[in-house]
Amino acid sequence: MELALAEAEAARDRGEVPIGAAVVSASGAVLARAGNRTLELRDPTAHAELLAIRGACAELGSERLVDCDLYVTLEPCAMCAAAISFARIRRLYFGAADEKGGAVEHGPRFFQQATCHHAPDVYGGIGEAKAASLLKGFFAARR
Amino acid sequence: MELALAEAEAARDRGEVPIGAAVVSASGAVLARAGNRTLELRDPTAHAELLAIRGACAELGSERLVDCDLYVTLEPCAMCAAAISFARIRRLYFGAADEKGGAVEHGPRFFQQATCHHAPDVYGGIGEAKAASLLKGFFAARR
After folding, report:
1. pLDDT band at A48 (very low <50, low <70, confident <90, very high)
2. pLDDT tens per residue across span B75-125
């Protein structure tokens, strides 16, 4: 989660919403790390999780990340939750909950849907204080 | 929808699940078209809709596709439905319904969630017979 938080800080420094993610293999190797780049890439799908999943898939040469874990500083949205499922991520660790856009504990609760065919083990609230503080600071500065 | 169906056929011919999509601007210009490429790109996020949205954003140099419409041969999954929302797609036209993985009329029904902050107008069943026939033929041939 330290790497994901560092990616969130780097995203903030680029003017992006400060969210970061990392994909780690079963042996503990960091396969990919990424921060949010939706503005820089002009790509609404360039969330930290999607970029990290795509990076890890490229690293492994596989469209599945079996036995890999994903760390992300904010509760994933529906797009990222579904991508986590498709990639067969084993464990999802996330920081702050997201009442407005989250899809794990809020809204669609995607992993609990019958249309979700693989659900990771989910651990929320990891590094929550720092993740939430980064987001609050970012939005407070923009008001 | 004819372009999306042609992309679905091209995906089938590449050995991919036959799903195709196209993004059209308010003036009727085709900004991007794509078929499913998850196997070829070894990328679980390379659904037709996501590739078409990313292509259209690159074409316009914007992370939002305001006043643009998306045509896709199958009911979008949760990942693609959320991406459609983030991109601010105006109208979504889809072909066959997807009971197993759809997220518009099935499962999460993403556009009806309070955590969905932009919902397109949705028109299902457009070109449904051909879209469904492509999928049935593809899976029958693999059994």
Report:
1. very high
2. 999 999 999 999 999 999 999 999 999 999 999 999 999 999 999 999 999
The binding site of A for Zn(2+) comprises: 47, 77, 80
Q: What is the pLDDT of residue B70?
A: 98
Which residue type occupies B117? H
Closest-CA residue of B relative to A115 is B101
Closest CA to B18 of B106, B101, B139: B139
Q: Would you call B44 and A86 a contact, using CB atoms and an 8 Å cutoff? A: yes
ipTM of the complex: 0.96
pTM for the whole structure: 0.97
Q: How many Cβ pairs closer than 8 A exist between chain A and B?
A: 121
Closest to B11 (Cα-Cα) out of B3, B2, B20: B20
Q: Which residue range is the domain that position A86 belongs to? A: 1-128
User: Which member of A40, A49, A75, A105 is catalytic?
Assistant: A49
Handedness of CA A88, A93, A94, A97 (dihedral sign): positive
**Contact across the interface for B108 and A115, Cβ inside 8 Å:** yes
Put simply, the answer to whether A108 touches B53 (Cβ < 8 Å) is no
CATH of the domain at A88: 3.40.140.10
Residue A143 has pLDDT above 90, yes or no: no
Cβ contacts of A109 on chain B, cutoff 8 Å: 108
Look-up of token digits 């079963």: A26
Q: Which residue, chain included where needed, has tokens 């190797």?
A: A29
Predicted local distance difference test score (pLDDT) of residue A142: 83
pLDDT tens sequence across B24-76:
999 999 999 999 999 999 999 999 999 999 999 999 999 999 999 999 999 99
Nearest chain A CA: its distance from B30 CA (Å): 18
Total number of domains constituting chain B? 1
Q: What is the mean pLDDT of chain B?
A: 97
B49 is catalytic: yes
Q: How far is A5 from chain B (nearest CA, A)?
A: 24
A77 near A30, Cβ under 8 Å? no
Residue B24 covered by a domain: yes
